[in-house]
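Recap from last week: sequence in, structure out.
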Amino acid sequence: MAYRNKVYIAFDGDNDMTAYKSLEMWNANPNFDFNFNNAHDLNHALDSSKEETIKRKLRERFSNSKLFILLVGEHTKNLYKFIRWEIEVAIELELPIIAVNLNGQRKDDDLMPAVLKNELHITVPYKEKIIKYAMDNWPASDEKYRNDNKTGGYFYTDSVYKDLDL
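Predicted structure tokens:
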């Protein structure tokens, strides 16, 4: 079994690449208290002509991942070929899931993919401090909730945001 120390990030590559690149920028910038090992740094080259090849390579990335982040944009819920598949794999592997609303909402809204709505996850807005907080804290909560057979979407209280000056 592979050592799981990576964060797998799923996003709409056609519309939300800027948000993904910002996460990478925060990660690379020593002035930000934000770091993670990006699963997408593994096996860079994907043969985009064959869906089965892409999914096999993505599954390799999943096998090294300890956390799944879904960037939720305007079109995410309508993407079935890869986004839905990536969510289903994260659920199957019981990875802690952080849904990051690019529209700034703190809770699930109508942009959340249906496949995720009743699955265990935390939703946060697209802000560096709360994403980092979720990356640091959600995995332990996810484990506790799983052990208690809880499901569904969770969100942080206003006091967490206040403590983070958000």
